[in-house]
Design a protein that fits this description.
This protein is mainly beta. The protein contains no helices and 16 strands. Strands 6, 7, 8, 9, 11, 14 and 16 form a seven-stranded antiparallel β-sheet that branches.
């Protein structure tokens, strides 16, 4: 605001901490500043009273619409670390419709008479039935020494493999005494991690097989796949 000083000049005035008005650049004698008149307009006064409360106890004044800390409204996703979602799940079921892209390195279907199915449902081995699994069989000009395999791209991201191995209960061979051999192989080194002999009606569980540092894992069946169908119930890898 502006005021007229006693010396005839129009100058700025400010209010000091003691409530007195000091005239800037004034030639008035020191200590002769006039008091700033009090503005008694109640409409311009800021109320210091707290916001009123509703009958429910909630404040009706302006509030921050953000969620307060400790409110229990946690919208983060399971597996988040520091606000960043983990790029890999803790475990992955390799059969069924939810196999991550890129992990199924060999195709479904018939190749030279050998049929491999990654997405078989209700796989039964002996007396146990699994929601999903692998089935390997021969469907054309079958011999006693057929082979079929499943290649799984792990890229060194997983440490353990679990699965239940055997011969599918749906096998249509007449001679149920025939057996199959299955080998779990590290394709990068050609190292056989486990070799199993499979008999009709028996489940061979494989738990906690070490697959750390394996880039490509192969499950390879050998034998009379025309009558005896190789099966793996719910094959799973874990970090």
């Amino acid at each position: 605001m502006f005021t007229m000083a006693g010396c005839g000049d129009t100058i700025n005035q400010t209010t000091g901490r003691d409530g007195k008005v000091c005239l800037e650049d004034s030639s008035c004698p020191e200590g002769e500043a006039t008091d700033k008149p009090r503005d008694n307009n109640p409409a311009e006064e800021v109320s210091s009273s707290p916001p009123s409360e509703s009958p429910s106890g909630e404040e009706t004044g302006s509030q921050d619409s953000g969620t307060s800390e400790g409110s229990g409204d946690d919208t983060g996703q399971i597996g988040d670390v520091g606000g960043e979602e983990l790029s890999e799940p803790i475990s992955v079921l390799l059969s069924g419709s939810r196999v991550p892209d890129g992990m199924q390195a060999s195709a479904n279907g018939n190749t030279g008479g050998t049929d491999t199915d990654w997405n078989a449902e209700d796989v039964t081995i002996g007396s146990e039935t699994f929601d999903s699994g692998f089935i390997a069989q021969c469907t054309l000009v079958c011999r006693d020494d057929e082979d079929a395999y499943f290649d799984i791209k792990l890229s060194g991201k997983y440490s353990r493999f679990d699965g239940s191995f055997g011969i599918s209960a749906d096998s249509d061979g007449d001679d149920k005494t025939e057996t199959l051999t299955v080998k779990v192989i590290n394709q990068g080194t050609n190292r056989v991690l486990r070799s199993l002999t499979l008999q009709y009606g028996k489940v061979v569980p494989l738990k906690n097989l070490d697959v750390s540092k394996v880039g490509m894992l192969r499950i390879h069946f050998f034998g009379p796949l025309g009558g005896m169908h190789g099966a793996v119930g719910e094959p799973t890898v874990r970090q």
